[in-house]
């Protein structure tokens, strides 16, 4: 009788090609913590949704997804935590599963992208976010939410990272990006042409929900005004559905303590449903 | 000295052609209750508004509206409640009044539409909502917020229901609608052409405020991301002002417990002002 | 990896003598709804507790409890709902299980007490509450949170109900109680002497958490100032531990929407831990 | 059908000996405003109470009280506002009415006490509060919530003011009080002996709810930890019921924006019910 | 180590051409107070921003701004308060400083605009707001947030005030504006052409943040649905950057008590950063 | 004009014997983070207090305290953080200062107690808390809020730690305490006799505010029902004033995100004022 999985994801690990899991970690969050509670809010609230998407005209009930719960992590030791995430995700990939991960803060994408890269050396990353996330370090710490894409670049290299919606960062981050990543500032309008180019490559999609305008999505640690609308993100998701080889994806930075109305959690749920349909097709 | 009516609605029943009333019922709400408190929030907050609408260039002070308060209803017995609403609304209609009702959950539109239909057998319904509301039943209950339009179809029949903004439902509801109602999905862009067709027919307008994007309007029980903006709804209201024979209308699903900032209540107030000006002209 | 049961209650049904379950029903709540969300808040927050009670010097890990989740109930049809609860609880009792139930509103104790009574015709009820709950009906409805103890009296009869902490009701309810129940007003000081008398009889304990002062426990639908402190309730629980034959118990009326700090949920969790230790010993 | 008066106070002005009214003014509040909303919260929430008090064993239905609503006041001009309150209250007193006023900030007691004093030159004031309220001025303003009792002393003189529960003020205020008022610090234990002395004199009772501990009553502008419990205040109210000539009373400083759970509003409601029963007997 | 200034504004008064200050006054607010807390929320939350603006491609670190804190004002005496603000601002202007002020309610712009006008008799005012603010008085008070632009017109005269985004007011205010100000209703689309005309004149910019839609910006006292988006305001700010002689500016009406998520405060911070870059260039 | 220090603590470092500082760290918090924001809430809200304490009959204005702000710390690297705190506190101690620290989570007391111990090898610690804090480690991490007193015991040794108010922990922690610390469970009644014994020894006082009942003090990460009242803590503080050689103290675990009413922050402010008066005398 318990509600314990995301809606429509009550299949066993074995029978599922696609695994959903949460990482309740916000240990390097510098401003307002709380993303550790994301999955705890998303699971019960997902029952306010339907499993059927009129956008993609497909139903979650028609694919087999396993919700494997949340990783159990100590707080206060970032390096050890990153390692545990890497081991877990590597296990999934080795078992031939595709996966969708829900953060937590954005740093948790570092080990999951790494695990995908280990299997798919040709991995390309689509990064939708308000922030550049390209700092070399944050107050001396290299493992930081503000550095996650920089860390991924260290193994991915140039030409593999495609950034959309970016509207905040240090001046030097914007400068650095010119030579090393593809970056669209302020909006995600060029997503269709990039998706066209990448359509048959192995892809990892990482969506930091703070790409949305805080009016639409206040429930996040570092709200950055001037973002895209949810209709624009929905249109972007429909574009991403043209990709033929998505191997992993994530939705990060929902922070339920800053979502008193549940509207941001509803957005995370709906984005997750669409993403599961895209990755799991 | 008391604030006890909606702004500008302090006329007596006798001298008014238009009656406003509230139905504080949320008894079948499956997800998050609270719409019972809508009118209790709307009345005092309406004094943050002006009575003059620069959109319609008309003033509430220039028409006679009676705010007759809220129905006094027991909770826990849906059938009896529906009957009491029907009797009350039938009384208004029999007295020759037009009315605007404020919910409560959407199920309360069922008896008010029925009362209007009894007097105007040619009644057509304009239904603006995020959800199809076309389920045959919800967990075995036929009287449910998720079934309200289906229940109305039983007496209205095909070709009488015009749905706008719909973006959530079971696959079979969307299928059923193809044969029995007019449905515009995701937006309300075709409202002008439909209004043109219906302009001289007896019309009931039912607005479920969750048609709005939850970023704009979080204060509702079942937020469904990807909705229309308030500017779009305002434009729609201006279109509805072209109708010549609106006999009743309602605004439902404001849930003040999910409106910590009062912004959703402000939207309900403004929508109600415009609707009173439209129905009462 | 999922958190899905109350802390320390992850045993199977078969191996457990004691079953925990939730009833997410608040359908007759006349003032402020929300108790349907109680178990949804209690389960994850129980991990802020320890399984060891220094009050009883016993540990939840040392008894076998099964958390069977929440009943899946339609809203809007109270009679049918009461029946489903009765059937479920009767099933537990027939399987020889003791149980602890978590509401929901207080009306849900009616069918669970009835199920216990069917098996133990000599059942006595200890009722800790701010309200008399002895109305004949509420606005014509006999199945109401305000009438639950009156309904139980219909099958239990005189001399079986022991009320503590009562401080609100109609004058006639207080009058009626004089002849039909034992009632201590305002406090629970006489609990030890009553427990002494009842120690070997079959007992059902029903705790409406609004017996606590709203300063201590604001998270409930009908806060009634002037209640007991949590230290007093803890002392009362220690007294209840002297009972030798508790067959069922419940904790009702936590309403998470009115608990923005989580302090009331923490109280419900701790009360539930102690009650499980008492019933399960 | 409207809920527009405090529970049980729906008698006409003419037939009532006792008038209830609100003053939604918080214009000199230096820390956190919001007491202007007190009556707007109290009226609807009073329906969570019963009219019967088991403490006094009397029922509000048995006395005739008129709720005359809230004064309509401009904000930003304190002197003019004080004058309007004085005129209104003087009108009541001249009509031979007793009254209970609900603030607003404490400064509004100044004109209401003055109006009572004009009629009863022998007036004595019982002042229950966390704060001395004896400043000569606050940042140069003599009409301030922090000076209200000092202002009253100017016309009442020595030996007329009895202060209870005081636990915050400037050192010089505590010094000044030694010569001019009766002051019990930290608690209200000496209330019975003072009431005994004053029992046949004309009395005004002013209760600043921040006398309560903020744990019990957080919903106020200047929470001062270490206050009395609500059970202690209830006991105090029962003592005040021994007074034979209470001509006016007030309850001030409920601030609903700091009462997210409604527990403080419930306390204000219950205190008001008891006070109406005391003044109106 | 303290965070005490707005981000990047830690220069001394002497070395800065531009001064930032706050006015924590909401004394005439008729609906919901709280703007007094704006700067108290803005300063710490500004550290969630970067100092670099990718919109203007300039960095706050590259200009010298002094944050001189908040004025220390008594509450309850509006006239005296207005005078103190005038004296303070006149001091800045006399020292040759440009300034950006943060309210507080909109009335505080009256003395700051006056101080600017005294130095620049040819001053023109760009007023971005949801409300006309052109009332002659509010309940008899001439110094009111609803009258601030009317008061400014008294010394500025016709042809000097340019209003954008206006969507609420009395009918007579809209009528009056036709002859005395430039007013664009509902949007700010004509800003570029007006800025073109005014580009070399001395300009004061006053931004009432309630011009934004309450979905985007709920954290204000009088939310008025149907406003502009933050992207539109950002575009407007970029247009204002073409002005060559901005002598002062303000951002008013953020009310943190109505901003539980911090999203409105984030908007105020970002608007303030852009405005500092515009005025300080 | 800025409010930037705790009330009455605006003296320079050099002229002060006593230094106040904050540590905004909650990096190992396992349940609900947010204590990093404590000082950010305490400083402005301290202006709701007076500097004069009627309990100790002393005034903060009469002693010289320097508020040196908050440490600037990276998040995610606990070991480095502990080291930076140790270095900072050691600097204070070496300069001959006494200090009061405000957390942050309880782990931050580990380095501050260590710094005090380095100077005063005979240091004794008075520990007031709901939790034992005596775990060997938490999920493998030795630097954890749940282990802080255990870590201190490693250098302090047996007979130096005096624990009061403890009501939660593992069974083995309670067992371990029997041989290594003094522990009073559930209350702080034995504080006077212990203080008598310790009155001339060098003392560090660490107050975890969750020792208070969550009804009184909900604003903390791990609320543990059944705690002491604030009046009891105030009485305890008065007892602590008899100590003659307090060298350092702290107040930890206020979590403003769980304090929507500000009542918990008010308690932290008042406790801090009393503690400054005690340490600074």
TrEMBL record, chains A, B, C, D, E, F:
<dbReference type="InterPro" id="IPR020855">
    <property type="entry name" value="Ureohydrolase_Mn_BS"/>
</dbReference>
<feature type="binding site">
    <location>
        <position position="131"/>
    </location>
    <ligand>
        <name>Mn(2+)</name>
    </ligand>
</feature>
<keyword id="KW-0464">Manganese</keyword>
<keyword id="KW-0479">Metal-binding</keyword>
<feature type="binding site">
    <location>
        <position position="106"/>
    </location>
    <ligand>
        <name>Mn(2+)</name>
    </ligand>
</feature>
<protein>
    <submittedName>
        <fullName>Agmatinase</fullName>
    </submittedName>
</protein>
<dbReference type="GO" id="GO:0033389">
    <property type="term" value="P:putrescine biosynthetic process from arginine, via agmatine"/>
</dbReference>
<dbReference type="GO" id="GO:0008783">
    <property type="term" value="F:agmatinase activity"/>
</dbReference>
<dbReference type="GO" id="GO:0046872">
    <property type="term" value="F:metal ion binding"/>
</dbReference>
<keyword id="KW-0378">Hydrolase</keyword>
<dbReference type="InterPro" id="IPR023696">
    <property type="entry name" value="Ureohydrolase_dom_sf"/>
</dbReference>
<feature type="binding site">
    <location>
        <position position="208"/>
    </location>
    <ligand>
        <name>Mn(2+)</name>
    </ligand>
</feature>
<feature type="binding site">
    <location>
        <position position="210"/>
    </location>
    <ligand>
        <name>Mn(2+)</name>
    </ligand>
</feature>
<dbReference type="Pfam" id="PF00491">
    <property type="entry name" value="Arginase"/>
</dbReference>
<feature type="binding site">
    <location>
        <position position="133"/>
    </location>
    <ligand>
        <name>Mn(2+)</name>
    </ligand>
</feature>
<comment type="similarity">
    <text>Belongs to the arginase family. Agmatinase subfamily.</text>
</comment>
<dbReference type="InterPro" id="IPR005925">
    <property type="entry name" value="Agmatinase-rel"/>
</dbReference>
<dbReference type="InterPro" id="IPR006035">
    <property type="entry name" value="Ureohydrolase"/>
</dbReference>
<feature type="binding site">
    <location>
        <position position="129"/>
    </location>
    <ligand>
        <name>Mn(2+)</name>
    </ligand>
</feature>
């Amino acid at each position: 009788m318990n509600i314990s999985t995301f809606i429509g994801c009550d299949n066993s690990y074995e029978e599922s090609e696609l695994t959903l899991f949460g990482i309740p970690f916000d240990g390097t969050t510098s401003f307002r913590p709380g993303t550790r509670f994301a999955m705890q809010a998303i699971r019960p609230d997902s029952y306010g949704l339907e499993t059927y998407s009129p956008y993609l005209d497909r139903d979650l009930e028609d694919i087999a997804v396993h919700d494997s719960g949340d990783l159990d992590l100590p707080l206060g030791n970032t390096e050890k935590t990153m390692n545990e995430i890497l081991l877990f995700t590597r296990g999934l990939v080795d078992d031939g599963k595709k996966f969708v991960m829900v953060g937590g803060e954005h740093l948790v994408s570092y080990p999951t992208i790494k695990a995908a890269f280990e299997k798919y050396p040709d991995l390309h990353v689509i990064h939708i976010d308000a922030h550049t996330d390209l700092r070399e370090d944050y107050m001396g710490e290299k493992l930081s939410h503000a550095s996650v894409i920089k860390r991924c670049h260290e193994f991915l290299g140039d030409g593999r990272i495609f950034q959309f919606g970016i509207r905040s960062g240090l001046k030097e981050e914007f400068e650095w990006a010119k030579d090393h990543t593809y970056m669209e500032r302020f909006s995600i309008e060029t997503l269709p042409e990039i998706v066209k180019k990448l359509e048959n490559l192995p892809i990892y999609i990482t969506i930091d929900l703070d790409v949305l305008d805080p009016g639409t999505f206040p429930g996040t640690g570092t709200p950055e005004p001037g973002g895209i609308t949810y209709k624009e993100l929905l249109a972007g998701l429909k574009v991403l559905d043209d990709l033929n080889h998505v191997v992993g994806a994530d939705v990060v930075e929902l922070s339920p303590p800053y979502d008193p109305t549940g509207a941001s959690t509803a957005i995370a749920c709906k984005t997750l449903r669409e993403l599961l349909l895209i990755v799991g097709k």
